[in-house]
Amino acid sequence: MAQFPKHEAQIVALAESLKAGLMSNPAVFPAPPVMGIGIGIKRNQFLTARNSALSYAATAEAATTAKDAALEALTEAMKTDLRYAENTVNFDDDQLKLIGWAGKKAPTPLAAPGQSRLLEAPKQGAGWVFLDWKAPDNGGKPSCYTVQRRYRPDGPWETVATAILTEITLVDQPTAAELEYRVLAVNKAGTGPESNTVMAVL
Fold it and tell me: With a threshold of 0.85, does the pTM exceed it?
């Protein structure tokens, strides 16, 4: 059994065939619910509406293009005036507020990071250990982390690695010894306090 078409062009073509067939064969199809001439009228109404929609779409696209171009021109003009105003009043905040603008903000000095948090050693094996932790929740943003290790209970702390992320897998670690690890956040302003420590026997 034939299936009704889904695409507009196919529907229009079928409408033309249906109209012509009904009008040419009244003996075969004597009383259709919608006469052939009615199909033709509705087909023409659709074509008119479609052409109107296409015209509106083209108009809308042109209007959007014009709007975007006008916004770009407005933006460039405003930026030019704002640069002029900044230079004219030497970035004075009070005077720039007169035109709805603001002066340069004083740079905020970078602070040393806070304490790295919740250090854990969830995975470990012979000669290796995986450490992860949370970034400090205060202080300046860390640029890296220093990972330190010592022999328990009171050996000196030594730096064994630097991490960019808040996790690291350390390999070639001493075995058959009680080791303790800690992490310190670092940036250009300084080094944050030591994290909590975790113990591992590898």
Answer: no
